[in-house]
Amino acid sequence: MPILYISRKAHFNAAHQLWIPELSEEENFEMFGKCANPNFHGHNFDLYVAVKGSPDPKTGLVMDLKILKKIINEQVVDQLDHQNLNKDVPWLSGIMPSIENIAVAMWQRIAPHLPENVTLHKITLWETQNNFVEYYGE
Ligand code: NI
Questions:
Q1: What is the pLDDT of residues 24-46, one digit of tens each?
Q2: 112 CA to centre of ligand 1 in angstroms
Q3: In the chain, what are the domains?
Q4: Among 45, 38, 112, which residue's Cα sits nearest to residue 83?
Q5: CA of 64 to the centre of ligand 1 (A)
Q6: In angstroms, what is the span from residue 31 Cα to ligand 1's centroid?
């Protein structure tokens, strides 16, 4: 059976601040740039969730993307949209809300909810028009 990768895109807006309390203000700004601003700031995040599987012989689909949309919305987007990622999201509590760490947390929340015939392949999270991370679950 051929193996294919199919993706669903989602979008959310959220605020965060990247800051290490043990570092000085100067060191934090050197490390995180504007993401260290003390009163938080927003990003328009784009999220791509890719799953891997073979098309069902009857439907021709790897996965019903309406189901993937529902999982993404329930597990991550509805909980992050218009929230402060440092303060408002229980499953990000105590985690530096970098796109790296958010992508790993998203994987842990989405993977267990997928149908048995597909596996999560990649989480791609865009923070700006220029910066994004990809996570393959390793
Ligand atoms: Ni930022």
A1: 999 999 999 999 999 999 999 99
A2: 28
A3: 4-12+43-135 (3.30.479.10)
A4: 45
A5: 33
A6: 12
